[in-house]
């Protein structure tokens, strides 16, 4: 029994030693903290919203120790901003917003994203602030509406800041009076938690920091950094939500399809127009639009198309151009300053459409109404001269050619002018005399 007891104790000690050795090896080889570094130098829109929320979800699914958003943004859509904030607040993995590299900014919606982060940090020579809502034209929002929008945003950003232990008063002033400060002052004013020159230094600086209100103790010293960049497909989608590009694509789409309808069989205009229109409609689907602006755009295309069929002497083309300019400027009105269509782009597109649809298509319709110049249809109404008496059959000289002809009321003498009424399938002309006679030309001559 003592011997068995000795073996049991020895086995227990051996197992404990092996477990401790395994834990040490695990700590040395696989226990290193991991941080997901997400590059975000863009505006806030539905595409970048998906990009950031997917990154936060990945950090949670793969159990990273932190996710760091390397941010440089001018702001963007309120709706997309709130979705990203919700992902930050719901994340079990601490979310760090780091305004980086030097020269970057966290403006407008960027302030809200920073205040919602578990850790807020900035690099030297960066700035944060200027979150006052403005209209797409850059002008002040009408007073009553402005009061509602500003109060809502100010209370929201203050609540985010104070819940995370930061300066709520300054955050509110960023909305109400567009306050903007640099990194050093932001640290002194308790707007951000850290100012660090690079990501590696930041990971060391915030190691052991306890976040509010989640109470997570940061474990980031010496962390392995996994970098994430926006993929090619996301970059393409992000490009397609440019308001100026959306308006241009829709214009090309309408123009190409209209040309194809008026000239069936050209293929190229219709193909390019269909592709452009679909891409433009994708942008309209992604961004919030004003129905007034969209209806004005549709009305402008109606005016342009009508110019090709109605002799308005340019009045319809001018009406279309004016409707297009106002429609494009109002199209993304609810979207915010970053999504306004440029006035100069709008004027350039409207002028081009007025020229192409109002003039070129008008000429195309005019040509379609012109009498054919070749083929059998061109013979109808042509006047020729009888060469061999029509009684009722004979020959007439028309357009430099000798044709068999037939007349209902004969006979018709040589030298008589006749008009072609019908070109039969057997290439025999049915003609009728015209009043003015012409002397017969010498045999073999021309008329």
**In CATH terms, what is the fold-level topology of the largest domain?**
2-enoyl-CoA Hydratase, Chain A, domain 1
Please summarize the sheet with the most strands. Answer: 6 strands, parallel
| CATH homologous superfamily assignment of the largest domain | 2-enoyl-CoA Hydratase, Chain A, domain 1
Radius of gyration: 39 Å
**Helical segment tally?**
15
The main sheet orders its strands as 8-5-3-2-1-9
**Percent of residues in beta strands:** 15-25%
CATH architecture of the largest domain: Alpha-Beta Complex
Number of strands: 14
* Global morphology: elongated
Question: Kindly state the mean pLDDT as a whole number?
Answer: 81
Number of domains: 3
The CATH class of the largest domain is: Alpha Beta
The level of helicity is 40-55%
Can you tell me the residue ranges where pLDDT is under 50 for at least 5 consecutive residues? 16-29, 438-447
Give the terminus-to-terminus CA distance.
139 Å
């Amino acid at each position: 029994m003592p011997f068995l007891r000795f073996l049991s104790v020895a086995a227990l000690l051996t197992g404990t030693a092996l477990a401790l050795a395994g834990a040490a090896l695990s700590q040395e080889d696989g226990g290193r903290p991991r941080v997901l570094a997400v590059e975000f130098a863009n505006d806030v829109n539905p595409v970048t919203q998906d990009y950031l929320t997917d990154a936060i979800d990945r950090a949670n699914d793969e159990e990273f120790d932190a996710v760091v958003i390397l941010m440089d943004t001018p702001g963007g859509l309120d709706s997309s901003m709130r979705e990203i904030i919700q992902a930050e607040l719901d994340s079990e993995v601490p979310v760090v917003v780091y305004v980086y590299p030097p020269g970057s900014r966290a403006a407008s919606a960027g302030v809200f994203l920073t205040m919602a982060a578990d850790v807020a940090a900035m690099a030297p020579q960066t700035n944060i602030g200027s979150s006052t809502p403005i209209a797409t034209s850059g002008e002040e929002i009408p007073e009553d509406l402005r009061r509602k929008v500003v109060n809502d945003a100010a209370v929201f950003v203050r609540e985010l800041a104070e819940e995370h232990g930061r300066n709520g008063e300054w955050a509110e002033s960023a909305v109400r009076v567009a306050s903007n400060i640099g990194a050093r002052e932001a640290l002194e004013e308790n707007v951000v938690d850290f100012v660090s020159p690079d990501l590696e230094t930041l990971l060391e600086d915030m190691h052991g920091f306890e976040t509010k209100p989640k109470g997570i103790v940061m474990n980031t010293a010496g962390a392995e950094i996994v970098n994430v960049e926006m993929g090619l497909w996301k970059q393409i989608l992000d490009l397609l939500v440019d308001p100026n590009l959306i308006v241009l694509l829709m214009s090309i789409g309408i123009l190409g399809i209209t040309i194809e309808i008026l000239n069936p069989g050209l293929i190229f205009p219709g193909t390019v127009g269909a592709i452009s229109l679909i891409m433009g409609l994708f942008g309209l689907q992604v961004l919030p639009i004003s129905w007034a602006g969209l209806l004005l755009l549709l009305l402008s295309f109606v005016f342009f198309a009508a110019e090709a069929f109605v002799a308005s002497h340019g009045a319809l083309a001018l009406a279309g151009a004016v409707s297009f300019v106002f429609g494009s400027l109002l199209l993304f009105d609810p979207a915010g300053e970053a999504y306004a269509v440029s006035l100069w782009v709008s004027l350039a597109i409207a002028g081009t459409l007025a020229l192409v649809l109002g003039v070129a298509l008008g000429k195309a319709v005019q040509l379609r109404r012109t009498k054919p110049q070749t083929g059998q249809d061109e013979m109808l109404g042509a006047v020729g001269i009888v060469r061999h008496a029509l009684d009722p059959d004979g020959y007439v000289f028309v357009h430099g050619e000798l044709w068999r002809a037939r007349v209902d009321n004969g006979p018709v003498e040589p030298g008589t002018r006749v008009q072609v009424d019908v070109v039969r399938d057997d290439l025999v002309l049915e003609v009728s005399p015209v009043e003015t006679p012409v002397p017969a030309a010498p045999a073999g001559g021309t008329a």
